[in-house]
Amino acid sequence: MEQEKNQNIAEQAEERVKESGSKGFNAKILLIGLPLFIIQLIAVYFITANILLPKIQSHTSSVAVDSVENGEANANDSIKHLELGKYVYVVEDLIINPAGTDGKRLLLTSIGFDLLTDQNQKELKEKEVLVKDAVISVLSSKDMTHLSDALYRDTLRMEISQKITQLIPDVKINNVYFSKYILQ
Question: Is the pTM above the cut of 0.90?
Answer without folding.
Answer: no
